[in-house]
Structures are given as C-alpha cells and as structure tokens.
Amino acid sequence: MNRYASSDLRNFAAMLFAAEGLSAGHAAISADCLVAADLRGTHSHGVIRLPFLLQRLRQGGANPRPALRVLRDAPATALIDGDGGLGAVTAHEAMQMAIKKAAQCGVGLVVARNSDFIGTCAYSAMLALQCGMIGLTWTNGAPGMAPWGGRQNAIGNNPLGIAVPAAEQPPVVLDMAMSVSAGGKVRLAAKRGEDIPEGWILDREGRDTTAPEALADGGALLPLGHKGFGLAVMGEILAGILGDAAMLDEIPPWFAAPERRVASGHLHLAIDIAAFRDVAGFRLRVDDLTGRLKETPLRAGCEEILLPGERAARAEAQQSDHGIPLPTAIEADLHDLAGMHGLVPPRPLAQPASA
Asked: What keywords tag this UniProt record (predicted)?
C-alpha cells in the first residue's frame, strides 16, 4: 500500500475545497480535519470522504461560502447558525468561540445548528488542548442506527469527542460513536472489499450480516447496547433539540442525498482548568491516573492497557514520520478528483529499500 505525506494530502484536499468555492481559511480547516483523522488512524473519516463532501458542495447540499451568525450570546454561552457550511468549518468556529468564553468565565458552551457532516468529533474537541483546556464536541446526524431492540434505522449514532490534556503522557482523547462500529468504518470495509464482523450491522430485513454493502442498501448500524442507544438519545437532545437543529429523520443522509441540506447540530464545550485548580497539578494527576490504570494486571491474551486516544497518538507519530497509507481504491478517487479539477494528484512517498 502506498504512503503519502500528510502535508501533500492536506494541500491537495485544500486545493480541491477551494476549487469548489471555499475560502482559503475554510478550505484549510476542512482539509486538515480529514487528514488529521487519517493521521490518527481513523481512516473511515479521512480523505475517503473527499468525493462525498465535494459532491455536496457542487450539488448544493453544503454551502461553500457560509455566513455564520451568532443568534444568541451570553458571557459563557452562545447559539450559532452554520448557514449550511461544512461541519468542520462550523465546529471550528464554535469551539474557538467556546474557548474564548471559557477563558473569561471558566467554561464556554456553544451550540451550533444548520451545519453539515462534522468529521471526527475529536478534531474540534482537541482544539481546546492548544489552550490547555478540556474540550468536548457532540453532534447528531442522519438516522443510520437502529434503536436498542429495533430492526431499522431511526436515530444517528451521534458521536462524541472529549479531549483532556496531560503532562508527559499523550492527551486522553475519547472519540466514539454510539454504535458498535462507526458507519464510516463499514463504508471503508466496503471500499476495500472486506467483510465486517457479525454484530456491527443489520441488513434491510433486520438480519445480522457481515456484508458491509448492506448498510447502504437500507441496513442499519447496531447500537453499543442499551447504553449506547441511551447516549445517542442524549446526543440528539443536547446537540439537536437544544439548539433547534434538525433531528432524527429530519436529517437526510449526507452521502446519499448530496443536494439536500443536512441542518444538523453540534454542542461544543471548553473547560478552563485554571478556573478550578492549578493546571500543572491537574496534568500530573492525569499522568498518574494513566500510569496507575496501565499497571493493572492483564487478562490472558492481552498485551497492554491503552487509554482513550493512546492508539491514535501512536498512529499519528508513526504516520507523521512514514506517511499515511492509502488503499488503491482511495488513490483512484484522488486521481479522479485531480483530473476533474485540473490538479496534479499527490505523489506517493518513495518506498524504503528492502534489506
């Protein structure tokens, strides 16, 4: 599998977004959101999404030049309208606003409505780490998951991202959907021609299946038990209803209806640690928590205990040095997009000489 420099993929994606009408700043944010996902090993939310997002911009489902508006504003809270812009753009603006409010009030909570597909929630949550804060992002989305006990789609898997700074250890970063597997992972398996484990999805008849293409053919993701379903309901309320965003089947599938506005919602929370205690002491305590958990005796067959975000941090370090691997099908997509826009596709890195 060929590997690509993250900077090359980022520049290429930004040029594609700019070619579809995004400002330079918004194109850079949208590109960075995708490549950051690839770097951290979440390839289901990386450049594989480029064809879908660009199609949404071309066909009017997403607004390339959104005029984001603040609808309600208070010292620690705000409600913003994303004007149908790409979700990464709306989320970036909302989290930056939440960070500024947290710097003044200790916490900042910004809810966004009329947005689009957000990408990974970790991306905007981790913006708070740059200011030494805790960040949280929650979003709702198109129904792709069955309720606990249900046999067809009724609710989004409504992912959540939480990022916490540490001292010497990697930040603790939870990035999860409320389904057994993210829909993007299922679509990635279909792209690769691979089966998926049983228990991930149901087919259109409500039967368990290992065929990933069944999801796009009217299938449904399975919730992460009754607790995952319960969290998805809370995400629908906090990210959707609270800001008067669209919810449930009011939200069209962004990848299957590229001409329709998604109008989904996000919730963004920033917490200034300094408002509660000394920051250095907090970071050391997070390191202590990490170390003590990792010292737990292991079950048979387990090699180590990993905290949320630890595997992703290792992937980011490795792929920053050695490049991001892209399957042939995704390479072909990038070449097609380059031809469509009159651009030169990114070149793979030279393969290391074999010993």
From this structure: Oxidoreductase
Q: Answer yes or no: is pLDDT of 249 > 90.
A: yes
Dihedral sign from CA coordinates of 122, 126, 128, 133: positive
What pLDDT does 355 receive?
41
Mean pLDDT of 53-67: 96
Residue span(s) of the chain under CATH 1.10.1530.10 come to: 1-59+309-350
CATH architecture of 66-176+226-306: 2-Layer Sandwich (3.30)
Right CATH for 1-59+309-350 from 1.10.1530.10, 3.30.70.2740, 1.10.12.10, 3.90.960.10: 1.10.1530.10
User: What global pTM score does this model have?
Assistant: 0.93
Backbone phi, psi, residue 330, to 5°: -75, -40
Q: What percent of the chain clears pLDDT 70, i.e. is strictly above it?
A: 99
Q: What is the DSSP letter of 259?
A: T
